[in-house]
Amino acid sequence: MAKDVIIACDFSSKEQTLAFLDRFTGRKPFVKIGMELFYAEGPEIVREIKKRGHRIFLDLKLHDIPNTVRKAMSVLSRLDVDMTNVHAAGTVDMMRAALEGLTREDGTRPLLIAVTQLTSTSEERMQRELLIGASINDTIAKYAENAKEAGLDGVVCSPLEAELVKERCGAEFMAVTPGIRFADAAADDQVRITTPARAREIGSDYIVVGRPVTAAADPVAAYERCCKEFLNE
Ligand code: C5P
């Protein structure tokens, strides 16, 4: 299975994003476009980055009734992104609808993964506010199984949960993991973190790295370091 480092382009404007990407004159990184940039700049920013030769993970985390998600995914499928996602909490039916909508007439489609529980949700809040009585690990494992049943390619999870997901859903089921920090760096607001090298050992397929690269004095060097550690190059 392909393994790669995905840079989270958490910028608010096209200018900032393109100026950042202009620094990468060698290897074109796989980039993640999230809600902030997509809502600010619209689909055009996706086309522009794609035109520059980057692969794109469009991280919009869709969660609505199946019919709405199917239609939204059908629109997104025309953007030619490489990966996109939904919330597993939308149910197996919603994930199936997402997959249908995303599949183009010729049968091709971007990779589709599901968010299990956001890494910002603690077990205590999940139980007290969402009234989910199970443990957070059981919830993540069950949501991952639901995503697999719906035909999705994998899940977004903390690197520390990748092992559990692989155990329950098989080695081929993808674990895409944010929460990556270098051994000698600050955690910022992330809690369940690990290094690129450790993420490789645990079984992550793609690591999503934001601030360790975007806020680095030398982003290209930081990206190369991630690749070296994660891909063992
Ligand atoms: O800057 P940092 O490396 O923490 O960025 C991680 C990226 O991954 C951000 O874009 C964040 O929104 C995203 N993410 C996350 N945890 C999740 C899902 C997405 O950190 N569970």
Explain this structure.
By secondary structure, this protein is an alpha/beta fold. It has a single domain, classed as Aldolase class I (TIM Barrel, Alpha-Beta Barrel). It is 45% helix and 16% strand. It has an eight-stranded parallel barrel, surrounded by six helices. Helix 4 runs parallel beside helix 5, helix 7 packs across helix 8 and helix 9 packs parallel to helix 11. Bound molecules: cytidine-5'-monophosphate (C5P). The site of cytidine-5'-monophosphate (C5P) has 16 residues, from strand 8 and helix 10.
Can you tag this structure with a few keywords?
233 residues; alpha/beta; TIM Barrel; 8-stranded parallel β-barrel; 11 helices; 8 strands; globular; binds cytidine-5'-monophosphate
Structural class comes to: alpha/beta
**SSE pattern, N- to C-terminal:** EHEHHEHEHEHHEHEHEHH
CATH class: Alpha Beta
Overall mean pLDDT score? Answer: 95
Number of distinct beta strands: 8
| Major sheet: arrangement of strands | 1-2-3-4-5-6-7-8
Classified in CATH, the superfamily is: Aldolase class I
Number of helices: 11
CATH architectural type = Alpha-Beta Barrel
Could you list the spans in which at least 5 consecutive residues all have pLDDT below 50?
A: none
Biggest pleated sheet? 8 strands, parallel, barrel
Percentage beta strand: 15-25%
- For the record, the count of structural domains works out to 1
Overall 3D geometry? globular
Which small molecules are bound?
cytidine-5'-monophosphate
How much helicity do the residues have?
A: 40-55%
Distance between the termini: 16 Å
CA radius of gyration is: 17 Å
